[in-house]
Amino acid sequence: xxxxxxxxxxxxxxCMQCELACSWVQTGMFQPSRSLIRxxxxxxxxxxxxxxCFQCDEAWCMTACPVNAISIDADTGAKVVGxxxxxxxxxxxxxxxxxxxxxxxxxxxxxxxxxxxxxxxCAVACPTGAIExxxxxxxxxxxxxxxxxxxxxxxxxxxxxxx
Amino acid sequence: xxxGWAGHILRVDxxxxxxxxxxxxxxxxxxxxxxxxxxxxxxxxxxxxxADALGPDNKLILATGPLTGTNASCGARYMVVTKGPLTxxxxxxxxxxxxxxxxxxxxxxxVIVEGxxxxxxxxxxxxxxVEIRDAxxxxxxxxxxxxxxxxxxxxxxxxRVAGIGPAGENLVRFACIVNDKHRAAGRSxxxxxxxxxxxxxIAVRGNQGVRVARPRDYMSAIWSYHxxxxxxxxxxxxxxxxxxxTVDLVNTxxxxxxxNFTAGQFEGTEAINGESIKDNWLIANKACFACNIACxxxxxxxxxxxxxxxxxxxxxxxxxGEGPEYENxxxxxxxxxxxxxxxxxxxxYLCNDLGMDPISMGATLATAMEMYERGxxxxxxxxxxxxxxxxxxxxxxxxxxxxxxxFGDELAEGSKRMTDKFEHPEYFMGVKGQExxxxxxxxxxxxxxxxxxxxxxACHLRAWTPGIETSGEYDPHGTDGKSVWVAxxxxxxxAHDATGICMFxxxxxxxxxxxxxxxxxxxxxxxxxxxxxIGERIWNIERLWNLKAGLxxxxxxxxxxxxxxxxxxxxxxxxxxxxxxxxxxxxxxRGWTADGQPTREKLMELGLA
Lengths: 163, 609
Prior knowledge:
With 163 residues, chain A is α+β, with helices and mostly antiparallel strands. In chain A, 27% of the residues lie in helices and 21% in strands. Chain A is globular.
């Protein structure tokens, strides 16, 4: 069974420690604009949601890449950008349905979460336990979550509650 | 290459419409750390302290510290340093949220705003691109709408915005600068200074990073600092209940100023304490940038609050807001005798969105209420009955003050000027023109000397004595040892304020933990002694500034009520503040003369002469 990142948005306070930890790993500085995990703040709902690459089973970034620069790490299952092959075309950044593959203007390469070789800094840094790195049947729990949301939406339409 | 410090300042001359990027004075940065200290150094160098606080010659500095923008919990803070329109003294008003770190990421340690624009403008900072833009589209808007409007207008959803609401535009003397909609540099009227410059907001986006000098040392220091913070009961209490449990603590000791300091205990505390908020109003905790505490309370008004609906802004009352914190629960609650949380929450939201300090707002209204109850103000003057405990008067007057409508125009001048105008200065409860916060020095004697000597007027954050005074170590009503402790604590908190780290971390992690973090970040080897010495240096330069501004030892005083009238009931009954006993000890502890002037020897020792 592979480990995967899980986000528990109810526990998130919006403190950005995950962004700081990630940017530290990426750049050796505190530079949230280079973080691969981003905290979305929905102020009026008092809701904070960190999101990053969840290493989809069906990884569109890999499918889209014209030079096969994205490969699967054998140990962690992470989809990893190989800098040597990446030509910086940016197709993966467009293909990702979650917007979690980024383009780095300094290196002119794509960059995305590689699970920090199995010890994700964001999960370590989170002071509230809102980011966990745990065993799961599939790394692709977000897909299942989206299906659930979709189901409840369909149910609400059938129940006549659609907005 | 600088570490910790970004290495540059942004100077904006609004009179000439010019913005320039300058190198930071690194020698000053080492000697004053940053934030409050570094900004005070610049202000001391550059500005005539006798200038009009609301005139073009006042300078407005927004300054971060070397740890702002790092992951050190909570490296969110920036300090607004300027001449305060409420006090005429140097003011140092601190805020968290996300704006300060964003300024660092844009590559600046501080912004110095000079002059006065000839029409409303706002500043857009996008790394090296700096524009002074026309604010016609946002002038007049409340704080939350200003932020949204600037993001829409520029098409930059990631902008962080610090700005003023109608209160700042209308030069309410206790207007705030509010960033991220709910975080405020709250006290002494820094928002009015911004308003007087016709500057609506400073919107920032930064894409650069903050470096640390010794990464390995830094990270190991951070882990131990964060671990101690996580484990401490002080931190856990703030996470669980925010600042509101202080209501019960302070009330128990008879130190909760009630109805304009006419009583030391409030009968309605059960309605306004931490549990009450948690059970009835709280939706979520909210953290500032890099904060491992998350004391912020996101709340929602209850359906019952409809009775307090105000005219200006119906949309906003349906959604969540932030607070109230302890201070606001007191000022809008106990001090006005109000125990209806719906009214307090509503007035608190109004203060946030109009951009004004709820402490001074509540305290000034409480003074007006006492004068009204005593028949010294009448309905014709006030436009409505101002009785203690009236939630409707609280909400209506809060709105009126932000817009300077009716009697709100008098309240907007602050308690000192209002009581002077109506010829009863004895009802002003504050120091140097600034209203007291939520601790009655007759319950906590040490707060008396802390208030009287604070450089920015009455303030609880420079030396907060209730902690040690209730620990059993000191007699809360006695004067012994208080002056020395206050002087030392002022030095510690002042240096702390210079780092860019939130004061609340000291409720959990020991100060010793922070020194190695600061050293590893900046590459300057600070010891605890250096740190406290820097705090003393900053305190003294602020004092020198105030003396040049015309303040004297006569301003280090308290209202007669605190020194002559004791409470008749409760744990603090019979106690008055013996400032005459404490003040000489304080001056001596500071190495100042008997009339409060820093001696030449002291200034030499601090590198100020």
